[in-house]
Automatic annotation (TrEMBL):
Provenance organism: Enterococcus termitis
Family statement drawn from the similarity comment of this UniProt entry: Belongs to the class-I pyridoxal-phosphate-dependent aminotransferase family.
Descriptive protein name: Aminotransferase
Aminotransferase class I/classII large domain: residues covered: 32-381
PROSITE patterns, per the entry: AA_TRANSFER_CLASS_1
Amino acid sequence: MDLTQRFNKQVYKIAVSTIRQFDEQVSSIEGILKLTLGEPDFNTPEHVKTAAHQAIDDNFSHYSGMAGLTDVREAAALFMQEKYGVRYDAASEVLVTVGATEAISASLLAILEPGDKLLMPAPIYPGYEPVITLANAEPVYIDTRSNNFVLTPQMIEDAMAEHGDQVKAIILNYPSNPTGVTYNREEVKAIADVVKKYPIFVISDEIYSELTYEDEHVSIAEFIPEQTILINGLSKSHAMTGWRIGFIFGPNVLIAEIIKVHQYLVTAASTISQKAAVRALIEGIHDAAVMKEEYRERRDFVYEQMTNIGFEVARPNGAFYIFAKIPEGYEQDSMKFCVDLAQKQAIAIIPGIAFGQEGEGYVRISYAADLDTLKEAMRRIANYMQA
C-alpha cells in the first residue's frame, strides 16, 4: 500500500534545510574543515552545567507546567529588563520553548491562516518559510541587497502598499543570520514607527542579541510591545544549543493563544534544561561578554582576509557570520562554487542560495571557530581563488 501521496500537500512544498543538506554532502570529504553551522564553538559555562547536575540529583525529572518553571520565567523576565529595558510579567507574558526554533513555529502557527502574507527582509534565515508554507500562508520577500542588507521604513511602506490587508505579520531577525547586520536605536524606532500604523504582528527573532559589536542591542518591543512577539533563547548567548531553551515574550493576550500551539507541539521544555537556564540567566547574565570579545576578534580577522581575497562584504556588527559576494569572474552559482571549493580545498562554507534567491551569488562563513582554524580556512579559500 502506497501512502506517500496522502500527506498534507503542503509537506511536499518544503524540504530539509539547504544548510543541513550541504553540510552533510561535504562531510565525507577527507580533511574537510567546516565553517557551516551557526553553533558556538565554546562549551556551556561550568556553573550552568553544575546547576543541571544538581537538578538531576534533586529529581527534577517530571513535567513542568506548559509555560515553563516559574523560576526560569522570572529569571528570563529579569534578564530582559536588565539587558534591554523591556518589561514582561513572568506569570503571563513569558513562555519557555524548546529552543528559538520551536518558538518560531509556535508563533507562526498561532497567527497565520491560509492566504495570509508575511513580510520578510531577504536574504534571511531559512527556518521561517517552511512553517509559513505549512500554514498555507505566503512569504513576501523584501530585497535588502541594495542597502547593504539593511531594512528601511520605506521598504516596509512599499510592501504594505502592494500587499495591503493580506499582510498578517513581519519577521525581523537582528542581528541577522546570514548577514550579521543589526540596527541601532534610531533605525529600530524608525521601523517601529512604520509598523505601528498597521494592524500586523512583529515576530522579532533576537536570538543573537547578546552578540553585538558596536551599538548595544535595542529590541523593537521597547517601542511597540503590544504588536511584538519577541523570541530569544540561550543557544547563542550561553553556548547552549543542545539544551534547547528558548523564550517567547509578549502581551498576555498573545501568549495565551501561542501557548495552545506550544502545548500540542512539545508539552513543555526539558525540566533539567530549564533549571540550568535559571543559573545561566541570573549568575550567568554576563556570560556572553567573554565570548563576544573573541567573536569580535575573529570577525575583524575574517572580514579583513575575505576583503583582501577579493570578496565584497557588508561589515557585520552582530552574530558570528560573514556574508560575502562572490567576485566577478568566478562561478556565480553559489552551490556550484561551494561544492567545488570543498572538493578542491577541503573547506566548507554555506552557499548563499540557502537563504533565498536574494542570497544567490553570495557565501556565508560562520566564524564560530577558533582563530587557528579560521587562519587555515582563509588560507584554503585564498588558494582556491588564486588557482
